[in-house]
Amino acid sequence: MPRIPIGRALVSVSDKRGLTPFAEALIDRGVEIVSSGGTATHLEDAGLPVIRVEDVTGAPEMLGGRVKTLHPRIHGGILADLAKQDHRQSLLDFGISPFQLVVVNLYPFEETATSGAPEGEIIEQIDIGGPAMIRAAAKNHAWVATIVSPDRYGEVISAIDAGGTTSDQRKRFAREAFFRTAQYEAAIVNWFERDGADRLVLALEQRSTLRYGENPHQPAGLYAMADTDGWWNGSHQVQGKEMSFNNWADADAAWRLASDLPEGAVAILKHMNACGVATGSTTAEAFAKAWACDPLSAFGGVVAVHGDLDADTARAISEYFVEIVVASSITDEAAALLARKKQLRILIAPEPSSDDLDLRSIDGGFLVQKVDAVEADTSVWEARTRPPTDTEMRDLAMAWIIAAHTKSNAIVLVNDGAAVGVGAGDQSRVGAAERALARAGERAKGAVCASDAFFPFRDGPDTLAAAGVTAIVEPGGSMRDDEVIEAALEHDMALMFTGERHFRH
Questions:
Q1: Residues 302 and 406 both lie in one domain
Q2: Helices and strands (H and E) in the chain: how many
Q3: Beta 357-362 vs 365-370: how paired, if at all?
Q4: Is residue 295 a part of any domain in this protein?
Q5: Which of 16, 71, 87, 139 is catalytic?
Q6: Residue 213 three-state SS
Q7: Is 445 part of the annotated catalytic residue set?
Q8: Model confidence pLDDT, tens digit, residues 269-278
């Protein structure tokens, strides 16, 4: 099909970014604009000629603006298939002129629903006429171009200058339009289900294609809901290769962990598990302490710096092979130093959000939960043996946060503000303890331990005490808590119960 010239446009938008210059460009090219409500007033105030919808329909707006465009003279002009004689005859019979362009974006339901507005105000932001016009125009994309975003205004003007919109353009616009209405309806459904949540509608759009999936033969992409404000969405890749599925998974795990620790903390992760975490007087010192935890595992890992990545830290990082560095910011000198490692991916990122949904796929379905908000509120912990020293308590709090970000079963040993041994993903808790101790070696003496769940038997505390661990934090709640407490008393270990578990499967 040849290009379809645009002679008549229906314009009704909530988002008025770029509207006036766009309308001016349409009018300059001889396009007649039909508009409604606030959009018509906006254009009239700019001195532009528009035809109001009520002048086309012969019916006024009613019900406080709920009914404006729901009329045969509007929808007939949008939906007419001009290849069909009966459609063309109906237009003639009823004096309806067809539209070649429909420019509509929707009431700001999503923004209003998350603003804390009262329910009645939110309900009024459920658009009716807008989705009806968008869907009608998108259905009839053989004849009508449907624009749902100001980002397309420039393309529309270029198309007019080229003689009209092409079939491929209109089909692409239609895909965008149907996705937008699906996205909008999903937001409404999810708002209604916010308390019961037995239905969850996901309207995901691809934000980027990925280098590959978990393995090179797997295609992959990064998808998100429109109203998602994940840290990655606000991140900036300074340099390096394209990100893969595993790169994003590891970077997310590393950045979430580092951001839960004090400013200046450094976390090093491999396969979404910590292999080094530390604080220090400088970020360079923190990195050195973190790398020393498990240098073998840290090779090819992800480094997350909660704070400014400075030149000294960059020099230290450049001595080793790492895949990704994520930081709050980076100095010019540091960027120049790391630029020599052209394959190294560097992401500058904002703080992660803590109120997202956590979705995990199973065969034919999804498991959905709220993201586990991790904090070490030591004021609510319960001492079941001697109280920890100030140094032990500081290290226990750090170990607890690291353990919450580590695959279960998880045991984390911390000594003097640095992880010295991590046992992750073991099938038994004492096995996780043994792996953490093996990595720590002599550094286990004087260290503290965090366990992401309770010790089911006293063998775990006995094993830790034999290696010189002096304090433990765990949720408590085992049938054998008394035996665990007895073991801690025998070894003069501080034992804290949090009352809260942080499994990460």
A1: no
A2: 19, 21
A3: antiparallel
A4: yes
A5: 139
A6: coil
A7: no
A8: 999 999 999 9
